[in-house]
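Support case: user asked for a sample of complex input and structure output to validate their parser. Sending the pair below.
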Amino acid sequence: MPAIQNIKVAVDAVVFGYTSKEGLSVLLIKRNIKPFKDSWALPGGLVRDDESLEEAIQRELKEETGVNINYLEQLYSFGKPGRDPRNRVISITYYGLVKPDAFELQADTDAADVAWFNIKKLPQLAFDHHEILTAAHERLKNKMLYQPVGFELLEEKFPFSELEKLYMAVLDRPIDRRNFKKKVIKFGFLEETTEKQALDGAGRPGNLFKFNPQKYYQLQKEGINFEI
Amino acid sequence: MPAIQNIKVAVDAVVFGYTSKEGLSVLLIKRNIKPFKDSWALPGGLVRDDESLEEAIQRELKEETGVNINYLEQLYSFGKPGRDPRNRVISITYYGLVKPDAFELQADTDAADVAWFNIKKLPQLAFDHHEILTAAHERLKNKMLYQPVGFELLEEKFPFSELEKLYMAVLDRPIDRRNFKKKVIKFGFLEETTEKQALDGAGRPGNLFKFNPQKYYQLQKEGINFEI
């Protein structure tokens, strides 16, 4: 056993944002210190001795971006020697999916800037953060196939096409729309209302849908098999 | 940012063993140092500055138990302050499922003893290792429902009931046997041979089965939806 271990522990977060207008985006900060000064990076930083890992990532997010996110899932720990040019840093990473409009972004002392970037238009990222982001996106895609998603992201009532758009944006591929709708209705976490969609143009307006929160959270706990 | 971070990083492994005779077991070591001296614990230890996390867990397993396991999956990082009474230690944990007969156990300097324990007859464990073990078992159960399992664990040719036994032992519940067989055959990772099972007693001997390695590894990569 080594007498002195010279390894530091950090937490970093991949916060995905979704709006039907912008699609899938990621919350990034611009670094104002070396190394990778002026590069965009995932928000994060060193864990303090007296805080849990979850407290650490929430504090870092608040400090660097101004956002309060009270639930993130642990993704993976990245620990390759050399991933930080200064010294050995192991990063315990977290990810989550939120509604970006809910936040007012505010870069603090640790960051020069903070912004949402569309997942298709990412800048060069510092360290191995692109690898972390890719792993988080893969995990999120996977999660959508065994847990219902969208309750916190869509309006209270919405046309069914909004849910399709969400799934296609996160999965980054087309889906079998008929099969998708059949499965969603069968799972029961979405309900059809009698209200009609307001249409801008011509066409027959469809009914609006809303989530059934009880069923939604039950299925989130139990898991589903959502082959789409 | 704290000037000095007083946190150490360890790796710990939950190595599950399976044989059709013994069912599911876990590899544990008996601690020969304080705290929890003489308690059983998961094998593991501090990460060295110059090794990757995967190298660290393989080295610790070799040192403490004598076993060489070249593939483990990362499970989760446990980092609650106070989980180690000495100082703050964050444990990055790994898990895997192996065939115990393949190993000759040998406790080394760091451990007083090493043994396989049946999952139903576990001793009291040191630290939060019971929590880690439970999380690993949950992950393993889950993994069995989206990836084929068993190629490295069963004999080259085996009666179908051996695969059922494996799944029931890991899932720790009965399965719908007819539905299970139908799905396995449909997935195609198992093939029926024309050889018959040697029977001790009376009854009609069934055909033996074998894995189709190509299909098995393909499905392991692609994932399956194995609702059983």
